[in-house]
Structure formats: C-alpha cells, structure tokens
Amino acid sequence: MRNRILDTSTLDKELLKQLDAFIDSLEGDKQEHLIHVLHKAQDLFSYLPQNLQLYIARKLDLSGARVNGVVTFYSYFNEKPVGKYIISVCMGTACFVKGADKVLERVLELTGTSKNEMSSDGLFTVKDVRCIGACGLAPVMTVNDKVYGKVKPKDVDDIIRHYRSIQYESK
Amino acid sequence: MKLIDKMVQLKINDISINVERGTTVLDAAEKIGVHIPTLCHLNLEDFGVVNKSASCRVCVVEDENTGRLIPSCAQEVYDGMKIQTDSLKAVMGRRTNLELLLSNHPNDCLTCVKNLDCELQSLAYELNIKEIHYQGEKMKHPVDITSFGITKDTNKCIMCRRCVTMCNDIQTVGVLGALKRGFDSVVATAFHLDLNQTSCTYCGQCVSVCPTGALAETNDSPKVWRALNNPNKHVIVQVAPAVRAAIGEEFGYEPGEILTGKVVSGLRRLGFHQVFDTNFAADLTIIEEATELVDRIQNKKTLPMLTSCCPAWVQFIEHQFPELLDVPSSCKSPHEMLGVLAKTYYAQVNNLDPKDIVMVSIMPCTAKKAEAARGELNKDGLSDVDHVITTRELARMFKEASIDFTKLPNDEFDNLLGESTGAAAIFGTTGGVIEAATRTAYEMITGKELKEVDFKQLRGIEGIREAKVNIGDLELNIGIAHGLGNARKLLQDIRDGKSHFHAIEIMACPGGCIGGGGQPYHHGHTDILLKRQQALYDLDASMPRRKSHENEMLIKLYDDFLGKPGGHLAHDLLHTTYSAKERI
Prior knowledge:
B: Alpha-Beta Plaits; globular
C-alpha cells in the first residue's frame, strides 16, 4: 500500500521541475543546502506540505525526520497553506516587553483566526515569530515583506483595514 | 617539547593532573577517580558511539577561574583550568538542572517499565532530591503503541538525544529526529507519524540507550500469561542463543555467565509444556543457508549471499535498498523455523492440532516481535511464532512469579527440537553465523572433514570485517558487518557493483544479538557486551559437537520429515520472501 504522504501527484509538476532545477544547480554537498532548498520550495509552493518535505528529503538523501526537524524549528517555514498576507508579530524579548503580546492579540481578533492558521477568507495567516532583528523598532510586525515598527494595538486596525481594502480594490 | 605542548595541566578538586589536549573535563576527572554524575552523555567506546549533546546539564561543574558552571561532558580542558566538582555552586547547579528535568516528568515510577532500571530515577536518588521545587506543564503526547516492537512514550523523554544518535549516526535509519524548538521541542518521527508508518527497523537500539521509560519494548508478557493460563493451549517456548549469556545480569550474576539450565527449569516452573532451543533451529538454518550458498556459488547465481537471521536487518534492506532484495538468503530466521516445525513436525509426532499450539520465543531482540507478525511467516494461516518476549520481559516474568532464579536447578531442553552444537551457540554474536556456516559449507564443498573449526579471522568487534577462507580450490571472501550504518556501506558497494564478497553476515545491533534491543540494559558499559560475546565462544568450545550438520536430532528431522536440505518441503516451511517497502 502506498503511503499517502509519499504521493507527490498532488504537487504542481511545473513547480517541481523548477525545484529540481534549483537543487541540480547547487554545488558541493547538497545536504548542506537544506535550508536554501526549503526556502526555494516555500517560494514556489507558498507552503511545505508533508509530501513536499519528503520529496526534498529524497532529493537530498536526508531522512524525513531531519527535514521535518528543520522545517518545524524555524517559524518562517509553513507546514499548512497560508493566506495571501502573512502577518508575523515579533515575540523577541525587546518586542515582548514593549507589548507585542497585545499587538498579536489584536491582530488575531481582527483577522478572526488563531496562531499559525489561515483566516477563513484566505487573506491572512498570523504567526508569532522569534526575534527578527529590528529591536530598535520594537514592537515590530511584518506583513509579507513590509515592516511596521513601534506598533501599538490601536495601529493594527488601520494596517488590517489597508490590506482588506487593497484586496477589495484589486477585485 | 612537542610532547608537553600536547599536554594540558589543570586542577580538579585541587588535585593537579596532566591530560592530553582535547580531553573533556569529565574524562579528565575520571582519570583521577573523581565521579561526576551524567545523564545524556553516552560513550560506547568499543562501538564508536558517542552522544555528547550536553543537553541535560546534569554534569555541570564549577570553573573557578570564571566562576561559571560548565557541562563537563562537552567542555575541553585548558591550561591552568581549576575545576571544582563538589563546590556548593556545582552541587546546587546539578540539583537545579535535575529538578527542572523532573518538573514536567510524569513521575509514575511505580508502574513505569523502567522502575529501578531508570537512569533519571537513579540520579534523583544520587543527587538526594527530596522535593521538586518547580512544577512545569506536563507534556500530553499520545503514547505510540502502533508498532509490534517498540512503545514510545514521549512524555517521559528528557531530550537527551541518545536515541537520535543511535537511529541516525549508528544505524542510519533516520526515523527519529528532534522537531520544533523551545518548550515545544520533542524527539519524534517526521510529522509525528506512528512508528509503524515509518521505516523503523525495530532494532531497539534506541530502547537500549534510552535513560528513561520514553522508549521501551512493547510488553507482550500479558499475552504469554494468558496463553499459559488457557487449559486448551499447548504452550511451547524457545530460547535464543544470546539470552542465556545475558539474563543472569538481571539477577545479580556477573556479565557473561551462561545460565541455560536455570532458564530451562525456570520456564518449566512458569508452566510451559515444552522448552525447546532456538539453537536447534540455528543449526537447521546453517544447513539450509550453507546449501543455498553452495548452490549460488556452484551454479553462478546471485552473489554475495547475505545472512537473513536478523529481522531488523531484513526490514532495513526492504526499506532502504529495495532493489537488492535478491541478495539476502531466503532462509527464515531460526526461531521462525522452529515455530513452523513445532506446528508441523512436532504436532504430527505428538498428534496435536497445530491450532492448539502457542509458540513463544524468548529473544534478545525487539525486532523479532515485529518479525513474528509478518504475514509471510505463517503456514496455513497459523503464524509460525505467536508471541515474542525479550530477555528483560522474561526476567520480569520470573520475578513476577516469585521464582528465585539463583536457586533454580539446571535442566535440559526437551528433545525433538532441543539438541544443538557449538556452531549454533555463536549465532548470538557478530561473526558467529558466518563462522557456523563456513564450518558446514567447508565439508559440503570439499567432502573432507574440517579439523580446525575455529575461524578466528571472522571474530572480533570491528564494525566491518573481512576475511578469506580457503575451501579446497575456492577462496571464499567473507564480509561481516554489525550496526546498520556499517551494513549500509557494504550494501552500497553491492549496489555499485564493487562488492567482491561471496557471503556477508549482517547483524543490526552493535555486537550482534548479545547487544540486542531486548537485552538487559548495559547503561553504557560496553565491556558487558564483550563478556557476553566471550561467553558464547567459550560455550561453543565446550560443546562435544561443533558443526551444525553433526546435530543428530537434525539429521533425524531431515530423514523422518523434511527430506533433503533445500528440498521441496524444506523450501515450503523454512524459506521466505521479501518485499520492497518505502523509506520515510
């Protein structure tokens, strides 16, 4: 019986080809490039489902536990489908003491979702992340690549409204 | 001058010593007899296994120069270092770290499988823990009982990574790894898959090094008790070669004492109707395996031939090298052979219905439990072997029945399937199976008597060994590997067409079955394994017959029942097939 999580037929063939090409282009010990490969895979597929993780494990001749260990170590990597906008609220020490928990609480409230889950409209995924290295701007949150510094809980309303509205406009 | 450069001078507890640069504080302390408690640290020197994760922090000592606590198992010495292992700071530091480990531990020691055999428990005693000052959130992971061989209770894990080292670095199976981080971190399979969904071989080397009850054999003794208490069942037991060399350790004997007679009488006290010897079937395996090897050599069939007695190894090749499934011998492992004979030959002779027979195997092995459940290993819908319990489980059954093992008389195995030769005795150690096969193959091929039966070139403890044996005109190239990581190297050579061997013996566990996942815990003392190994070689040397084909009961079995070695009935009952499996 073929194990469900080994089945790669649900993965986009064109994207897999691109991933293969990236892996083939890597020089030296390919196993050393696991994190690069995972980054590339997430760029292509937006998240790293189990069958994709095992596909990568095979390509790099690593164990599934090793790949899954790295994926689950870094909050950057998503194991579940993600929304169009990924909101990351920094929970590093500096941000935390400056009230990041209240920011996170407000973000979750407004997006109507829970940590690391996608909102029901498919727009947002909210994550609490480790220090992102911008402590001078604490508390910090990012939406995709855009950084918001010195965020107060009441600022969150405008930020969320902004992304909802551009979504509406683009429709 | 160079010699001095290599050396480092330091003080431990005000005692000056010189040690080589690169030595850890722990090893330096040991040299002058200073004991430092450890938990995650594991050094199986003879097998090249070192776990130095420095994760438990139980071995912290005070560096007086900096006033800091350092993990002695990982910290290397430096010139002028001053270490205090028993300062108040060091003692309290160790205690705090241990209390933190205990703060989220289930603390169900009374009913834990490792009760009185647990390194965490021993440390709590040693460090005089009378109160756990921190109460952490307990983990709530489901206990994985999905596999036949190993039960995994993550809630008892202290993240020492010993099992991860064994599974990845030594066995190269890669089923266990560390997932997540911080408070959520956990030693688990990929995606928390159940063990039976992974390519776990059930070798049990993770179990053999786990300091707590997080990894243990699946307990099958209740099934055995039920069978023994069922008046309609004829319950037969068999004992593997490596069990007799290790079980004494559970009752205070020195390692390496052979206690076959006591095991036999103890099993009779437990109520088994017949006590057979897996060694009988080991001799039988040799006849079948040597016949197959001679056939493969003389008729230019697939070579090398790999031994197939070890079920963890069989599982390994099925998952990891599915393209090489024609290289292992088709022979079933000895206890499976004995099982099928008990339900056919023995049943016939004694006019018993095979359905009423329950076959129990006492094995040094957790993988044998999973092997017994394999669909291929049955005859007419009846499993060759019904239950497998490990050396440790048998010792617990003796204790449970309040049988004083030390006072048991020495009994003999029941006949029909009880006689054995010295060749069978050494099945339990790395190199033993192939030596036994060589003794028989020699006489099969040359037709001459083999005078010197000791093939010393096949013995030893190195992970991969090779030797040449001259058999008439033929120079037989023999390879031996123990530990699955070593096996992998030989298999890669076969796959790449680079292997020059005729025959290869593979055992999954370091040392062979003497170091099996079901044996009494060695707690890092590998000298115990070497003593068990020597005991088996001594047993072999003491036997009147030392070649499998001289086993008289075996000759009778072929004459009366099986026909000729490798013949039709032998093939039907004693051989098996393998199937490709996935690697996760």
